[in-house]
TrEMBL record, chains A, B:
The keyword Transcription applies. Keywords: DNA-binding, Transcription, Transcription regulation. SUPFAM superfamilies: Chorismate lyase-like (SSF64288), Winged helix' DNA-binding domain (SSF46785). CDD domains: WHTH_GntR. Residues 1-69 form the HTH gntR-type domain. Pfam families: GntR, UTRA. It comes from the Bacteria. This is GntR family transcriptional regulator. InterPro entries: Bact_HTH_transcr_reg, Chorismate_lyase_/UTRA_dom_sf, Tscrpt_reg_HTH_GntR, UTRA, WH-like_DNA-bd_sf, WH_DNA-bd_sf. GO terms for biological process: negative regulation of DNA-templated transcription. One of its GO terms (molecular function) is DNA-binding transcription factor activity.
Amino acid sequence: MLKHQAIAAKLKNYIEEHDLPHGAKLPNLTTLMELYGTSKNTMMQALKNLENSHVVYQVQGSGIFVRRRQREAYTPLFQNTAGFFGNFHEHIKHQVLAFEKILAPPDVAQNLKVTSKDSVYRILRLQILDGAPFCLEESFYVVALVGELPKSVASTSIFSYLRQQGLKIGFSDKYFDSVLLDEKQAKALELPPNSPALRLEDIYYLNDGQIFDYSRTYCQAKFFAQSN
Amino acid sequence: MLKHQAIAAKLKNYIEEHDLPHGAKLPNLTTLMELYGTSKNTMMQALKNLENSHVVYQVQGSGIFVRRRQREAYTPLFQNTAGFFGNFHEHIKHQVLAFEKILAPPDVAQNLKVTSKDSVYRILRLQILDGAPFCLEESFYVVALVGELPKSVASTSIFSYLRQQGLKIGFSDKYFDSVLLDEKQAKALELPPNSPALRLEDIYYLNDGQIFDYSRTYCQAKFFAQSN
């Protein structure tokens, strides 16, 4: 960790521990330099860092202030810890609801660009965040491309497993809309039937351009994003 | 435009004009250099550029291929032309459905951090993309901060107008979830009542940390995003 990052982390901790509200004025630059025993340059870098991560805002000629969003019960949309578009590995746990090898259903075959005579793994998992249902994820993997999958991989990161097996994962297309949950989906997510949900459809390509995975994820979660 | 950008644009045009499918193999690097009369370095930059914008993919030792997503009727989620998180200015037209000065309703007052005795402008607009309803946007501006707004600004970019008036727009918090449209909202978007929709709530701050705008936007649109 660079020095300005360490100082940024300390100042962020201070703000969180003292539960400072939005708009709370922080000490000025000179005072902060003294408090953290650092140069002007390093302190300014630390502050820029905190500004970019939406922890403070700076008003020229006026000072440095705490930035805080009003709503807490939202999940970050973009950050790589648990975002809809990020990777879920760190904080999300998976409860496997189905693991089966089947012939590709017509709509799945179309998305995977295979025929309905091709075999796919269907893996249905409930994503759990902080002990509560977060998203329901149904994935289809082309057997001819991924090989035999042991059932045990379903509760872990399937992509990590595939990479270990030497699969070269390339790019993805993501489609995103809003749908009503059917009864089964709603039940898995502990919601009333016909609840609205975000749907994310992912089509994953190997780096040679072949599609090996189609997945659809349903989330009723609330997300936030912040801009500078 | 830099030379590699010009060449990237030409190659992209060629792919679009000839409606090349996903996986179509393009000429190799040497041939492309000859075709576009350019150096290896410039051609490689142009290809990297097209790879980053999801127009081609390169397979080491194999060649350069056309990348194309399968679904066309989706709007980019992130690009700055019409994305949910981008700016809508370029292609979106606004049809003003309401423009009024009112006392802040309780939920609005809470989001704006004002009292219900404070006046706000309420501006309801239908966003139209390619001639069809795209999103329904309801915005509330704090009169004490934005001053008097002429009705004519409602059909244009309100933020551009405010900047011209000297307002210093700072940062924003965005909240994002899935909801059912009520009858009025659905009607405006030409959808059946209780259709599911994405809701984006934006809280905009001046650069001194004061909230001047709260808006909620309802979209039934389908979005796409692509990753490398």
